[in-house]
Amino acid sequence: MSQFISVFDMLKIGVGPSSSHTLGPWRAAQTWVQKLRELTILDSIDTIKVDLYGSLSLTGKGHATDLAILLGLSEADPEYIPIEDIAIIVERINIQEELYLKGGKVIKFPNNSISFNREFLPFHANGVTFRGFSKGAEISTETYYSIGGGFIVQEKDNLEEEIEINKKNFPYPVNRAIQLEEFCEKENLLISDIVFKNELELKSEQEIDFELNRIWETMLECMYIGCHTEGKLPGGLNVKRRAFGTHQKLIKDSQYSNPEEWIAAIRSTEVKFREILKWVSCFALSVNEVNASLGRVVTAPTNGSAGVIPAVLMYYMVIENHEADFNQIRRFLLTAGEIGSIFKKNATISAAMGGCQAEIGVSSAMAAAALTELLGGSAAQCLVAAEIAMEHHLGLTCDPIGGLVQVPCIERNSMGAIKAINAAEMALETDPKEVKVPLDKVIDTMWETAKDMNKNYKETSEGGLAINVGLADC
């Protein structure tokens, strides 16, 4: 049996630039502080030290891991914190060298309290250890691992305590893609229907719709902000935001005042193949430019790949179906989330474990399957689309220049979105019975490829573009 992974685990609202290097460590810091409260030892702690290991250390500065630790220890919530408060909180901590926790608790935190260690811990590439001291004595030590997509675990975690997929808990227990296809065929249901029925075991229909709509509104707002913000991205590479200029040329003199009116304005623009390519790229770029600026995005399934799913869903709404409403949005997100969960259960969604194939590749597969359903494809064709999308991302490395989620990461979201649309169209013209490579086989292959991949190409910035193109070149 496998752990149940909800669509709301795969699509989480948070802050950029990285789900594994920002959101995960942030959540780990929050979790540790909460544990100290539950053990009633928080009041005794007067000093905190943090050790980052492996990939969290090697690209931690570029991924704002240190900032995430500060915010998590301060008990700020990445899902709800006003973006403008992030810089204020970080600056205050750095100047005063103190953490301010809920309830007025103040803890010393000198600027050298976070250590970057190049060595990798055996359990996972992304390790972080928190140590709490009282009058010089260490009274708490906890190590957490950020395993991708904002998920965190501890080595001692007992997965049997998690919700497991079985008939007792869920009507349609799914671990592999073939099981999902069999349920759809047997019950004559769409993938989104199967997912929705499973989610009903955890939330009411109203709660599911509320959360899905909140996810979509966050995606839409992110695209809107990205398309209307110009300038350069932070971090030292001096990367110019491109979504703004592209959007200006495409939208022309259309009038609107909010994201909803913006959608209507886009629907009235000229639609040719080149314009469609530009719009899809613009949507994807906009999200990941916001992500690179520590803006609010939706992990889908990670922050580094957050632009693919919004771009493909927006493409459907403004190009394919001008009558699309929340019903289509719901189906798209439910289907995408389920495909992502199958990848996570059987492979990885962490670039530190599998390279960029585990992020852009998975997001492209998720989007391809979801778009195929909305375009009238069968469940089997949705899985074919996911397979096609991933097959052509196999082996994709993660080698960010300067450890920043910018080059080549931002552009890759545009490529992943375009591939997803192409994969959906190919799948719709395919008889699933004639397919040679089922989705489960390509997931297994992705995982084998991940294990064989040189560690320098797994989000360490020690190989590929990261060393062949230096900061001086930019």
Overview in brief:
This protein has 474 residues and is of the alpha+beta class.
Explain what this protein looks like in three dimensions:
With 474 residues, the protein is of the alpha+beta class. It is built from 19 helices and nine strands. Strands 5-2-6-7-8 form a five-stranded mixed sheet. A two-stranded antiparallel ribbon has the order 1-9. The chain is globular. The protein starts with 6 loop residues before the first helix and ends in a 6-residue tail after the last helix.
Distance between the termini: 49 Å
Strand order of the largest sheet: 5-2-6-7-8
By secondary-structure content and strand pairing, the structural class works out as alpha+beta
Question: Major sheet, described briefly?
Answer: 5 strands, mixed
Number of β-strand runs: 9
For the structure shown, list the relevant keywords.
474 residues; alpha+beta; two-stranded antiparallel sheet; 9 strands
Write the layout of secondary structure elements.
Elements: H1 7-10, E1 12-15, H2 19-38, E2 47-54, H3 55-58, H4 65-73, H5 83-96, E3 98-100, E4 106-108, E5 114-117, E6 126-134, E7 137-148, E8 151-153, H6 177-187, H7 191-199, H8 205-227, H9 243-251, H10 259-267, H11 273-292, E9 296-299, H12 308-320, H13 326-346, H14 351-354, H15 360-374, H16 379-391, H17 409-428, H18 439-452, H19 465-468
Parallel strand pairs: 2-5
Antiparallel strand pairs: 1-9, 2-6, 3-4, 6-7, 7-8
